[in-house]
């Protein structure tokens, strides 16, 4: 194995610690420097990691040691920071989404292609043993030819626990844009790219009331749809039904189910790396829990960056920019379809990501 890829992080918010812990234990990566609008926050974030420098954003971009910029800024800044990294000749790996809109994301990908650098993007939870074991079961024919899938995420809304939930109810937020990347990325990983979508959506309340923290009782405006549903028509012909809502107390629906001609799979929560995969076969009464047979065991956020680092030149990483753009277009088109009442064709295409085989001895 060659030298580790040197990582510079822009954005030291809550998610930084999860990435830093993963980077520290993976030989493919080395954390070199960080930058944040709040230097004190940056210094506190790297305190457990000896030798990591705190720089300005401009200083980080100019640092010749850094191979890849890990972009952990807020979604509204993703494209801006990515373009700065690309202009500096560095690879870039973003937290989800790749950019706030497909237009902005397309600009990032064009700039990267022109500069000869690579783009990767979360979520990488699909590389864990949960989604990958389900993927292997499908590829091994345990459910026969896949026919349909369902994906469900339902909560009462983030204002019940988040002290500053404004973003979730503003453009770029809502249940689909917030949580949809996990579910749609998993569906594409399991069943391949999507060709057409048709959606419906609603917004039941003009305001939400913050239920915790120093702003307890404050009302915030709701300017996005808080219940989104629709059908994704995969290139393979599989129909996936998606339900994303901040409108229910709870649900007992599985996060993801995949149905085939000979059986059905329950796929674990795509917001996590692992979890049980359950199989029911036609003619059998009981569900069987499958052993973890593929994916990265014990994975954490950042394993997609390690995959990015070790993907040979000329090949698309599993958590690559093409997949992230395709997922963003699917979600944006689903919302547009909900408002127009017509089915929309997805113009982008990506390859179904390569599976993550089980490690030797697993």
Automatic annotation (TrEMBL):
A Pfam entry, by short name: GFO_IDH_MocA_C3
Superkingdom, natural source: Bacteria
GFO/IDH/MocA-like oxidoreductase domain boundaries: 132-266
Example GO molecular function: nucleotide binding
Name of the protein in its database record: Oxidoreductase
Keyword Oxidoreductase included in the entry's annotation: yes
Keyword Oxidoreductase tagged: yes
Keywords tagged on the record: Oxidoreductase
Organism the protein comes from: Sphaerisporangium melleum
Residue span, Gfo/Idh/MocA-like oxidoreductase N-terminal domain: 5-120
InterPro entries: Gfo/Idh/MocA-like_OxRdtase_N, Gfo/Idh/MocA_oxidrdct_glycsds, GFO_IDH_MocA-like_dom, NAD(P)-bd_dom_sf
């Amino acid at each position: 194995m060659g030298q580790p890829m040197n990582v510079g992080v822009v954005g030291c918010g809550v998610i930084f610690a999860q990435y830093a812990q993963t980077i520290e234990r993976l030989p493919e990566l080395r954390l070199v420097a960080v930058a944040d609008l709040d230097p004190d926050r940056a210094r506190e974030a790297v305190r457990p990691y000896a030798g990591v420098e705190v720089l300005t954003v401009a200083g980080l971009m100019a640092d010749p040691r850094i191979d890849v910029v890990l972009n952990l800024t807020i979604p509204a800044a993703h494209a801006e920071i990515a373009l700065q990294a690309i202009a500096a000749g560095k690879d870039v790996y973003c937290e989800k989404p790749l950019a706030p809109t497909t237009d902005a994301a397309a600009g990032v990908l064009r700039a990267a292609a022109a500069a000869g650098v690579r783009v990767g993007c979360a979520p990488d939870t699909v590389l864990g043993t949960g989604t990958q074991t389900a993927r292997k079961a499908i590829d091994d024919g345990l459910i026969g030819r896949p026919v349909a899938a369902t994906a469900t995420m339902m909560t009462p809304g983030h204002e019940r626990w988040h002290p500053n939930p404004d973003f979730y109810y503003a453009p770029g937020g809502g249940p689909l844009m917030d949580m949809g990347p996990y579910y749609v990325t998993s569906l594409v990983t399991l069943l391949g790219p999507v060709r057409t979508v048709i959606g419906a959506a609603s917004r039941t309340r003009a305001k939400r009331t913050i239920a915790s923290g120093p702003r307890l009782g404050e009302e915030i405006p709701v300017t996005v749809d808080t219940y989104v549903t629709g059908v994704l028509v995969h290139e393979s012909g599989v129909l996936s039904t998606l339900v994303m809502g901040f409108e229910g107390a709870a649900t007992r629906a599985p996060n993801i189910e995949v149905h085939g001609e000979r059986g059905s799979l329950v796929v674990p929560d795509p917001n996590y790396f692992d979890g049980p995969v359950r199989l029911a076969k036609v003619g059998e009464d009981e569900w069987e829990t499958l052993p973890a047979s593929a994916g990265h065991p014990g994975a954490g956020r950042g394993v997609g960056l390690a995959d990015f680092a070790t993907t040979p030149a000329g090949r698309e990483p599993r958590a690559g920019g093409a997949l992230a753009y395709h997922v963003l277009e699917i979600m944006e088109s689903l919302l547009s379809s909900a408002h127009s009442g017509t089915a929309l064709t997805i113009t982008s295409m990506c390859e179904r990501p390569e599976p993550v085989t089980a490690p030797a001895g697993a």
